[in-house]
User: What shape does this take?
Amino acid sequence: MKFIFWFVILHFTFYILHSPAVRAETTSLSTSLSDEEAQNSIPYSTKVTATIPYYWWLELTGWTSPYASVELSMEQVVKRVTTADSEGRFTFRIALPRTLAPFCLIATDVSNISSHPLCLAPPPPEFDILIKEVVMPPTLKIDRGKIAKGETVAAQGYTTLNSEVVPYLFEEKPRGFRFPRVFAAEVPKPQVKSDQNGFYQLNLPTSEIGKNRIFVGSIFLANPSPKSTTLVFDVLSWWRMILERIITFLANLFWLLIKFLTTPWGIILLEIGIIVLLLVYYKRSRTRATLKA
Assistant: This one.
């Protein structure tokens, strides 16, 4: 009898615990606990990000030709462009990466001539980095690289306004068979000064035949600028200059003809020309055969 009594009690308890009502209550309790925990957690719609890629601030001021475009770049990580004002002053204030590297400045004047790059060593790591009164190199341009002896050809460019421009000219001198070239004979420097727009111009020396190199610098507010890009020009005799111009003209004419023959009209004309030549050749061959007979 005791065995039957305890069996009935256990069976009844198992039935009550697994009834649908008890399961629903347990589920509701679990759901309410989950909702309470969800209220204390961060909502799914909230995005928390913390990215600090920059640490140092750089402020750089300098001088170039008026209204020139100045580009600052650092190892393809930082690239900024600004425009100088009417007096040639420009300013950068940018954030730099934590790992500092050398950076370069390039100025492009209003004639779209770029200066030689001015590269600066990485500054000491400080929260604020201040670099003042940087003078950019002048820009330099020559119309032709080959000049006839005695011909007047100008070199020109832009720099800081109302500045003294110092040209550096070097002639090529022979130095024996093993060392045929040396640029050591410096030509006297003409006095040149830029105008209120920063423009300057000087005539190249063409009295002596040979290869020459030229670069310029400027002096602004008693501070010398870095050197410009170095350009090379040849001074040739008149007969060689004429010969080279004829050769250049014929070469350009030949390439224009080749370019024309690759077009549809050029191919048609070429085929017509070949047919005409074949007909002429056939007619002459028949004439010769008739004369021999």
Summary: Confidence is low (pLDDT under 50) at residues 2-8, 20-53. The longest strand covers residues 210-220. The chain has four helices and 17 strands.
